[in-house]
């Protein structure tokens, strides 16, 4: 009966160890100070740094905004994520404005969820501001979840449990 008890204890240890799910990732960046002087456009080239502690499924949007009733007068011309190693991933304009026809309005850029490696990353947002009445801007929101990997403590519990199962089985023979 003792080998059965030992085997059940080891099995319950292995099941209790399981895997640890990484916490959700939520990042937010913005530039709310884009304003033209009335003579020239207000060009911007913003860069926001962040660190991913583990491989992460990340996606998100960038949306332009204004405090004024009309607008916004912010034209994002490029947006991308760049890893410390130099690899880049483009965001796609999913709701645009025809600036050549003097239209204005909200722009939305989207990054479809993609697995990104752990490490240092930068979000780059490049564009032009035409508003002269009040500062305008954009807000970027990136959300995701980390890869579900066993923690070292969980792995060692599994190893102890498997060793216990092996010893219990050997003793029962």
TrEMBL record:
Record key words, sorted: Signal
Q: Which first-to-last residue range defines the signal peptide? A: 1-22
Keyword Signal listed: yes
Q: Protein name, please?
A: PEP-CTERM protein-sorting domain-containing protein
Say which species the protein is native to: Pelomonas caseinilytica
Taxonomic placement: Bacteria, Pseudomonadati, Pseudomonadota, Betaproteobacteria, Burkholderiales
